[in-house]
Write a structure and sequence with these properties.
230 residues, alpha/beta, putative 2-phosphosulfolactate phosphatase, 11 strands, 36% helix, binds (2R)-3-sulfolactic acid, binds magnesium ion
């Protein structure tokens, strides 16, 4: 299996007809996995709050979710802390979600053949799903156009699990991501990242712990025709 890593949304290229894994471990893709595990019906990603609000005027059992600058948007039901997406809040609901980087990375990947949603929570299930693929592109969302250590470390986690049962051929970014996890835990890398520090300063330190849980959810969300589901 050939595995390549795209370090930030702005560098997405050559993904046409390929299998893509989207990572925004802090926190959009973790929130998506948590929401679907807690019974959300589906998630519709939007680039802007206005688009999400516009869609909410249709009839349906919707929740508006997302953040800007890490904080819940005004008038929205939920922000982007994965701990908010409890069964009580999300079961059987369609989530209309817009985040700074995660939903953008998905939107920029629409030419791919398959789009899977990755987090530490579902890494084992994801890797099991990928095992028959010949080529996988890991897309790190990044933070506001910049490289983000948190997403890159998560790419390393995906690779370290992929390597257990597959013969994989990595590009140099893949090698670097894998080496990051040699002597460090995912949590310590999330906490060391600039975005992790920012979230801690906003009072979301528990989110870093939550987002570092490995293999606790056995689901692989995928994007198809405008919707993320399982
Ligand atoms: O899309 C995103 O990058 C968000 O996950 C950012 S935040 O963690 O909610 O600030
Ligand atoms: Mg992020």
């Amino acid at each position: 299996m050939r595995v390549t890593v795209i370090p930030r949304t702005e560098e997405i290229n050559e993904i046409k007809e390929k299998t893509v894994v989207i990572i925004d471990v802090l926190r959009a893709t973790t929130s998506m996995v948590a929401a679907l595990a807690n019974g959300a019906k589906q998630i519709i990603p939007f680039l802007t709050p206005q688009e999400a609000k516009g869609y909410a005027t249709h009839s349906g059992d919707f929740l508006l979710c997302g953040e800007r600058k890490g904080v819940k948007l005004s008038g929205f039901d939920l922000g982007n802390s994965p701990r908010e997406f409890t069964r009580e809040r999300v079961e059987n609901k369609t989530l209309l979600m817009t985040t700074t980087n995660g939903t953008r990375a998905i939107n920029q990947s629409l030419s791919a053949k398959h789009i899977f949603i990755a987090s530490a929570l579902n890494v084992q299930a994801l890797v099991e799903r990928l095992k028959s693929e010949r080529e996988v592109v890991i897309v790190c969302a990044g933070t506001k156009g910049k490289f983000s250590l948190d997403d890159f470390a998560m790419a390393g986690l995906v690779i370290s699990f992929l390597e257990k049962n597959n013969d994989i051929d990595l590009d140099d970014l893949g090698v670097a991501a894998k080496l990051l996890l040699k002597d460090r835990t995912l949590y310590s890398l999330l906490a060391a990242s600039h975005h992790g520090e920012r979230l801690e300063n906003l009072g979301f330190n528990e989110d870093l712990v939550y987002c570092s849980q490995v293999g606790v959810i056995n689901l692989v969300p995928y994007y198809d025709a405008g919707v993320i589901k399982i």
